[in-house]
Amino acid sequence: MYFVGRKKEINQINKALEAGTNIIIHGKYGMGRTSLVKQIARLNHQRWQFWFVDGSQTPEKICRQLFKELFPDEQHRYPLKYKSLRQRIAAATLSANPPVVLGLDNIATITSARLDWLRYFASHGKFNFMVIVDDSLKQDEELKLRGALHLTCQVFLSHLSLSETEQFFQHYSRQYDWGWSAEMIKSQSCLSRGYPLFMAERLADILKAAHEMKDEK
C-alpha cells in the first residue's frame, strides 16, 4: 500500500530511536498506527532489526515466539521455562547487530505480568520498544506502561490532510491509468475523511468494481 503523510511523526520516531528512547503510538482505530510502524521499519531496516509481535498475547507466548525466531533449531530440543526464555532472549539481543526494535501491537490492557515483562527488557536496554496502544487503554494503565518503559516518546496520530489523501488517490489513478480528474480525486479523498483505513477500503472497493466490470466484458 502506498504510504503518504506522517513526515512529522516519522521524524519524531527516528529521533527517538537514535536516542534509544522507547515510543508509544496513540491514535483511534483506522488512523494507520500499524502502517506507520511498518513504514518506519522499511525506512530504517539497515540501522535496526524490527521484530513485530501481537502485544495482546501473554508475555510467555511472546517470548516463545521470539525464541523461535532467534533459535529455530533449539525450540524443540530445549523446552525452556519462561524465565529461562527471557534470559536467553535478553543475552542474544543485547549484542545484536544491528540493534533490535520490538514492535508491540494491540496493547489494550496492562496486566502485572505484562508490566514485569516490559520492565525486565526495558530496564536492561535489551530492546527499543515501539508500542501501539489501543484507544481503550485507561489513563492509569497508560501511566503504568510509561513507567515500565522509562524514557518514552509519545506520538499522537490524527487524520491525514486533504492534500495528503489526494496524493494517495493520485498515485493509484496513475498506477492503474484511470485518468481521474482533480474533482474525482478530491471526491474520493473527502469520502475517506483522511483515515488511512478508510482510504485503503475505498481503494479496495474501486479495484473490486473495476475487476467486476472487466469480467463482464
Observed structural traits:
alpha/beta; Rossmann fold; 2 domains; five-stranded parallel beta sheet
Which value, in Å, is the CA radius of gyration? 20 Å
Supply the CATH architecture of the largest domain: 3-Layer(aba) Sandwich
Q: Structural class, judged by helices and strands?
A: alpha/beta
What portion of residues is helical?
A: 40-55%
Residue windows where pLDDT falls under 50 for at least 5 positions? none
CATH superfamily of the largest domain: P-loop containing nucleotide triphosphate hydrolases
For the record, give the distance between the C-alpha atoms at the N and C termini, rounded to a whole number: 28 Å
For the report, how would you describe the main beta sheet? 5 strands, parallel
Secondary structure: number of strands? 5
Q: What percentage of the residues does DSSP assign to strands (E)?
A: 5-15%
Q: What's the tally of helices? A: 9
Shape: elongated
Strand order of the largest sheet: 2-3-4-1-5
Question: Layout of SSEs?
Answer:
Layout: H1 7-18, E1 22-26, H2 33-43, E2 49-54, H3 59-70, H4 82-94, E3 100-107, H5 112-123, E4 128-133, H6 139-149, E5 152-156, H7 162-175, H8 182-192, H9 196-216
Parallel strand pairs: 1-4, 1-5, 2-3, 3-4
Helix pairs in contact: 3-4, 5-6, 7-8, 8-9
Overview of this protein structure:
The radius of gyration is 20 Å and the shape is elongated. It has helices at 7-18, 33-43, 59-70, 82-94, 112-123, 139-149, 162-175, 182-192, 196-216, and strands at 22-26, 49-54, 100-107, 128-133, 152-156. The longest helix has 21 residues, at 196-216. Strand 3 (100-107), helix 5 and strand 4 (128-133) form a beta-alpha-beta unit. Helix content is 54%, strand content 14%. The chain contains nine helices and five strands. Helix 5 (112-123) packs parallel to helix 6, helix 7 crosses helix 8 and helix 8 crosses helix 9 (196-216). It folds into two domains: 7-156, P-loop containing nucleotide triphosphate hydrolases (Rossmann fold), CATH 3.40.50; 162-216.
